[in-house]
Write a structure and sequence with these properties.
Elements: E1 4-13, E2 29-35, E3 38-41, E4 52-56, E5 61-62, E6 71-77, E7 86-93, H1 95-103, E8 108-115, E9 124-134, H2 135-153, H3 159-163, H4 173-177, H5 181-197, H6 199-204, H7 206-225, H8 230-241, H9 251-280, H10 282-286, H11 291-310, H12 330-337, H13 359-370, E10 378-382, H14 389-402, E11 406-411, H15 425-436, H16 438-450, H17 459-476, E12 484-489, H18 501-510, E13 518-524, H19 528-534, E14 539-542, H20 547-567, H21 578-588, H22 592-604, H23 607-616, H24 626-635, H25 643-658, E15 663-664, H26 665-672, H27 678-684, E16 690-691, E17 697-700, H28 703-710, H29 712-715, H30 724-742, H31 763-772
Parallel strand pairs: 10-13, 10-14, 11-12, 12-13
Antiparallel strand pairs: 1-4, 1-5, 1-9, 2-3, 2-6, 6-7, 7-8, 8-9, 15-17, 16-17
Helix pairs in contact: 2-5, 5-7, 7-9, 8-9, 8-11, 9-11, 12-16, 15-16, 15-17, 16-17, 17-18, 18-19, 20-21, 20-22, 21-22, 21-23, 22-23, 22-24, 25-27, 25-30, 26-27
This protein binds adenosine-5'-triphosphate (ATP).
Adenosine-5'-triphosphate binds near residues 353, 391, 556 and 704.
InterPro entries: C2_dom, C2_domain_sf, NACHT_NTPase, NPHP3-like_N, P-loop_NTPase
Protein name: C2 domain-containing protein
Keywords: Repeat
Length: about 775
């Protein structure tokens, strides 16, 4: 049977360190713990041969039920150069060492780091001090560490201030009544050490970090205004009493932590809104007549959440929103709202940022959303292809969803042009926003009822009637406390410059007029038409590919290669080797899509051979751009010296990148007049660039692959280059041929013309394909 533990990396001692030409006098040490494909690391302690980390790891440790589960704790020198850290030693914790650790539970044990390089290989190069903790002791230890951290930054702070950290003030309803104005000064004093905490809170939980950011801004505002308010006191005190310095360890504890920090963020937003209104004017404050009740409810939920820690109480569904004041008035509205005919946005297969990557930009965006000092309500994140914009937008929308603040996540996909047409954008946004708040739903429903033709009106009219007017009316009635987050991802994949002009000009001119509670994040490449419309209108951030992204891509490559090593029996424990990792990181140039394609290429078949192909067949000076990587990947995906294969593969690739809707291999065979399973045979070898499985629709894994195949300046001269005009022509001919031979009674290439449409499982796919292939 397995149990859950946490691992506390305490310190190291007696580290053997030889200064040299490339090595500083003393090392900057950190430890990375690899387990089952996950990597966690401590901070770097500079210039110490006996560093103390006191680092409680965030990942869960299951006692291995099979001997396959291995943990490896690696000691690194932090060189400060991206991807150039020096791997010094390792402690491998296998079954025996786990047993030893568990036997000494709660006690500190010492293990030897073994050297990994040169003369020291396999020899002891220092000692690592560890402690294994049961889940129940984890929180106490985390708390103790947080207290110590705070004590460092705020020597006079008492432990109760620290334990009750991210919150602020007063004790209960009775305290609220007797609130002493002087208490506000006490609140400010209590907040000071918390405000100093910064990074420490970020390390505990990303949402704790958000709560901290919001409270810091409230604190600064409060300090400036010296405002006093009894109402606030009670909520703040309750928040103070809830310890959120609990680590995520087991699934159930994780749920509880998430519930508490989520509710804490919600309370912080309430306080932010409340104080902002309070500071603004007394008249506005009168509209806060229900605030007392809301504060009581918020306190109640927080206390219930706290109780759940000490009991087996489930916290599922225990969340009190400060914005939802009434239940959605059911069917009537939703029937009306269906007239918006929104495009289906299915984010199931989208990936979020690997933990620890893109932290700075994620923090900046979250802060922009949650602590709005920027008068603008639109943030445009741009960057080159494959720099990670879509992954960031998915991460932001996911955290907004978890915080019950997601107003909509709208994204476009060049693979699916029919679903990425500019015409559906405003209707889809309106529908998403209506789903998130009943008052918005009501306001939009009223707009549709009073003008049913609006859903087919020109874009600027749709914007005004379906978004601007309803959102403004909701803002005026004060029923929403912001922020509500709307994410629009990959706008460059929405239509083309010819078809999206009106949408861009409408968004540029009208989005800033929407109420401030709506925070809009737009991501796109820097296409000329988008840049022209957005660059001076919105707050802009450019996702750089440079030093920081090289470090992030390094984490990503390590993580993925470790997963490959665990999946492949014959790769030794030292695979892929530090040098190879560094080489891949160098070659990637900090571009995520390069790294992601490379690791897929390595994973598909014979990883060691593929790795060698990438790292040794190209000199360090040679440019190894994304184009080159795609060409190496394709070169290895089939017998390109065979003319027959070239013809088949080109035709299949044309179907993948030029078809208006994604097609299955069966559809491709029918369209191209191939004997089955020709298309499947070609697709089977394209796993690192095309997402496909037998009978499933094939899509490029990334838009940059379509660009590469169809851009003559990038792939010309290669047998797989696609001439767009010829490709469309071929698809059109395929369509015509099918129509010619089968149209009489069977437009969709059905095997049996007596079948009912409902009996054909892929009918919509066939119809879409046969109608729109040549578009
Ligand atoms: N922080 C990250 N963690 C893990 N994987 C990432 C991260 N960022 C990007 N990736 C991976 O890198 C690839 C490219 O990223 P993404 O699609 O987000 O780039 P993009 O900037 O949106 O590109 P484009 O402009 O071409 O759409 C994806 O396969 C994604 O899974």
């Amino acid at each position: 049977m397995s149990s859950t533990y946490s691992l506390c990396v305490l310190s190291a001692e007696d580290i053997v360190w030889k200064p040299g030409p490339l090595r500083s006098k003393t090392p900057n040490l950190y430890v990375a713990v690899h387990q089952d494909g996950h990597v966690q690391r401590t901070v770097t302690i500079k210039h110490e041969l006996a560093p103390k980390w006191d680092h409680l790891l965030k990942i869960s440790y299951m006692l291995p039920s099979s001997s396959k589960s291995e943990t490896s704790i690696r000691l690194f020198h932090d060189s400060s150069l991206p991807g150039r850290d020096l791997w010094l030693g390792v402690v491998d914790i296998n079954g025996v060492a786990w047993a030893k650790l568990c036997g000494s539970e709660q006690n500190t044990i010492l293990l030897d780091f073994k050297g990994v390089d040169g003369d020291s290989k396999g020899k002891p190069i220092g000692k690592l001090s560890l402690r294994l903790l049961r889940e129940t002791d984890t929180a106490a230890t985390a708390l103790e560490m947080a207290q110590r951290d705070v004590a460092k930054v705020a020597p006079g702070a008492t432990s109760s201030t620290l334990i009750k950290a991210p919150g602020l003030v007063a004790k209960s309803a009775s305290v609220a009544k007797d609130f002493d104005p002087a208490l506000w000064t006490t609140i400010i004093a209590k907040l000071e050490p918390i405000v100093e905490l910064g990074d420490k809170i970020a390390a505990i939980h990303p949402y704790a970090n958000m709560a901290w950011k919001i409270l810091t801004s409230v604190y600064q505002a409060a300090k400036k205004q010296q405002a006093t308010d009894a109402k606030l006191g009670k909520l703040v005190q309750t928040m103070v009493d809830i310890p959120i310095f609990w680590r995520r360890k087991s699934k159930s504890l994780e749920d509880k932590v998430l519930a508490i920090v989520t509710q804490t963020v919600e309370c912080s937003l309430f306080i932010q809104d409340y104080t902002a209104n309070g500071f603004r004017s007394r008249t506005v404050r009168n509209t806060w007549a229900n605030a007392d009740n809301k504060i009581d409810e918020l306190c109640d939920v927080l206390l219930k959440l706290q109780d759940s820690f000490d009991s087996s109480l489930s916290v599922q569904g225990l969340f009190l929103s400060t914005k939802v004041l009434q239940k959605l008035d059911g069917l009537v509205e939703s029937e009306i709202l269906k007239k918006l005919n929104p495009v289906d946005m299915n984010a199931t297969s989208r990936t979020s940022c690997l933990l620890g990557t893109c932290q700075k930009i994620l923090d900046e965006i979250n802060e922009w959303i949650l602590v709005p000092c920027d008068p603008g309500n639109v943030l445009w994140l741009s960057g080159v292809a494959g720099s990670g914009k879509s992954t960031i937008s998915t991460t932001i929308s996911e955290s907004a969803r978890e915080l019950h603040r997601l107003g909509g996540f709208v994204f476009f996909d060049r693979n699916d042009r029919a679903r990425s047409h500019p015409d559906g954008v405003i209707r889809t946004i309106a529908y998403s926003l209506a789903q998130c708040h009943p008052d918005i739903a009501s306001a939009i429903a009223v707009a549709i009822q009073s003008d049913p033709s609006i859903t087919n009106a020109p874009i600027h009219a749709q914007f005004k009637t379906l978004l601007q007017d309803p959102l403004t009316s909701v803002e005026n009635s004060n029923s929403i406390q912001g922020p509500i987050v709307l994410v629009i991802d990959a706008l460059d994949e929405c239509g083309d410059p010819g078809s999206r002009g009106l949408l861009l000009s409408t968004l540029a001119a009208e989005l800033p007029k929407l109420p401030h509670f709506l925070r809009v994040l737009i991501t796109s490449r820097r296409d000329a038409d988008i840049t022209k419309h957005f660059h001076s209108r919105f707050t802009a951030k450019v996702l750089d590919v440079g030093t920081q992204s090289i470090t992030d891509v390094g984490l990503f490559i390590r993580d993925k290669l470790e997963k490959i090593r665990l999946d492949e029996e014959d790769l030794g424990s030292s695979w892929p080797g530090e040098e190879n990792i560094n080489r891949l990181v160098d070659l990637s140039g900090g571009l995520f899509i390069w790294a992601s394609t490379a690791v897929k290429f390595i994973a598909v078949y014979k990883p060691q051979e593929k790795l060698e192909l990438l790292v040794t067949h190209h000199s360090t000076t040679e440019d190894f751009s994304l184009n080159k990587l795609y060409s190496v990947a394709l070169q290895n995906s089939g017998p390109w010296e065979d003319g027959g294969f070239v013809q088949d593969a080109r035709a299949v690739l044309a179907c993948v990148v030029l078809g208006r809707t994604p097609m299955t291999d069966v559809t491709m065979d029918a369209l191209l007049d191939f004997r089955s399973p020709t298309s499947a045979k070609v697709l089977r070898n394209l796993g690192c660039v095309v997402q496909w499985g037998p009978g499933a629709q094939a899509r490029t894994l990334h838009a940059s692959f379509s660009d590469y195949l169809t851009d003559p300046t990038r792939s010309a001269g290669n047998p797989w280059a696609i001439d767009t005009a010829t490709g469309h022509h071929r698809l059109a001919l395929g369509c015509l041929k099918i129509l010619d031979t089968e149209l009489k009674f069977n437009i969709c290439a059905l095997e049996d013309s007596h079948l009912l449409n409902t009996d054909v499982h892929d009918m919509s796919d066939r119809v879409a394909t046969h109608h729109s292939l040549a578009g």
